[in-house]
Amino acid sequence: MSSISEGTLVSTRIRLARNLEGYPFPSHLKDEKQAKEIIRLVSSGLNRLDDFRLYYMDGVTEWEADALIENHMISPALIEKKHYAAALINGDRNLSVMINEEDHLREQCIIKGLCLRRAYDKISDIDSKIGRTIKFAYDEQLGYLTACPTNLGTGLRASVMLFLPAITLNDNMREVVRSISRLGLTVRGVYGEGSGAEGYMYQVSNEVTLGVTEEEIISQVDEVARKICTLEEAERMRLKTGSARMGVMDKCMRAYGIATNCVVLSSEELISLAADIKLGACLGYLPIEHVSSIDDLVSRMQPHNINQSAGRQLSADERDVYRADYVSNHIKKLAEHK
Amino acid sequence: MSSISEGTLVSTRIRLARNLEGYPFPSHLKDEKQAKEIIRLVSSGLNRLDDFRLYYMDGVTEWEADALIENHMISPALIEKKHYAAALINGDRNLSVMINEEDHLREQCIIKGLCLRRAYDKISDIDSKIGRTIKFAYDEQLGYLTACPTNLGTGLRASVMLFLPAITLNDNMREVVRSISRLGLTVRGVYGEGSGAEGYMYQVSNEVTLGVTEEEIISQVDEVARKICTLEEAERMRLKTGSARMGVMDKCMRAYGIATNCVVLSSEELISLAADIKLGACLGYLPIEHVSSIDDLVSRMQPHNINQSAGRQLSADERDVYRADYVSNHIKKLAEHK
Question: Hey, is the C-beta of B264 within 8 angstroms of any chain A C-beta?
Fold first, then answer.
């Protein structure tokens, strides 16, 4: 793996969809009692063995719920199911099991960088533990049964988040999307569905879950992610030497200048500044070694994470001031420490 | 004069309109020969005595002409009169006499800061020297005769350039313009006629030239400029303590961040960044002591002044890169040296 990949292969996410035999899918549950029964069944095995905590969706504060969504541990849809839903989340906040979302179980592992196999192993381990005390709805022909047919079979969605500024700025993203969809994979912009202009962040994942093995899915997504990364590398060379060179450098340096001097900073603007600062670091214009530390910063500066570190619920205006102060100091240090 | 005035009272300009007796006004000159005769008459006395150089408008290169316009030594209208027009300009480039523009003579002195009397004395001295060998068109009743009746009488236009960010941002400029016009003076935005939003620069000058003495005009413009300066000072206190406080600080700090990091910078953007940096310095957000040095920087970074210091005619793109580099180094130094 080349050195450029650190900031490019941002994170890996593996998700398994499972359902319990003998129970209707979550959208057809009889009553709250039946939902709670499923929650109890699922959590009984896991809760004891591992460092997991059970969150009932009718028991979390709005603040907690928003923080969990922000960190991708639960979906907004789960919250809406209030009395019917719960989530098991580990202490490191990289493993979660949503209960009674679209399926009875949505098991998920998120890890930094490209590590599909490791993430799959981790979540498989959880899946096995739960499977010891529960019988999953499984068909010899079809595999795991899911509420939506797009998840049938393996119930596996393997995703990689990629930072692709050069492909985006050189206007080649459309072509990449086209090639990838021919392979049965999908790419979508993480910020601003489809356009992907802001943040230069894209998620590549498998479309097909049926008729392929877990191993095949993971191999394919891994291979494609690495190929896109190599293409991005080539496109960065073009960006550094092409006619838009000074404009790109200017864009990166201005983002650094604003981020290190602003007094008010929204989380949306931070996403866009961070992307240009990362690009500047990747192209060698900014002396920042660990590009991925900027991703951590963006995540730490999301509204509810700020509330958490401030120890109280700040107003939006207060957060923008807090964020500007924190970000400017942090980025200055990152650029010094090289 | 308060300490705040340094960057606020930017510059002083005195202009006298004069015409020669026995010659038609420039727009009615018989031929080139007659125009050249006037040029010779005017320049004969001055050229020898002082550090003045005569520029024939049909003799300057386009490059020279643009540089002279940029530094306010001549008007664009003068260039257009090619074979008919000339200008006498001193070595320090603060005194100029345009010959055969709208009037036979337009004598002008520009000095930094508020110093109407000194500027008037300087240009009066030139006026007297020229008057020794030439008879000016003068009427006992009306005073100096001019091509346009708005200059009749004294032929004097006394102007002060003011930097008024707080009055502008607090949205009180309209009220200032109204009060001043009641006194027979005018205010206009220096960049973007009327709006004055960009650069926060305004020029205050006398409207009336007839029926008042030179002394009265100068006293009045001086007094009004000082009053506006005091008002600006009060408005800055409001800006520092009011609800828009953080937004204003953010604006200033971002301008500093961009100016000290950009790689490409147009002269229009520099005007706007420089204005916010000056404001930041005036409000104590940026450790820059000599605010007026930023005005010098803006002037030095105008297109033709850049060509001059680079020693060759740069393309617009090259200038934007040169400007970004020069400005970022210079502003960093200004903020360090305090």
Answer: yes
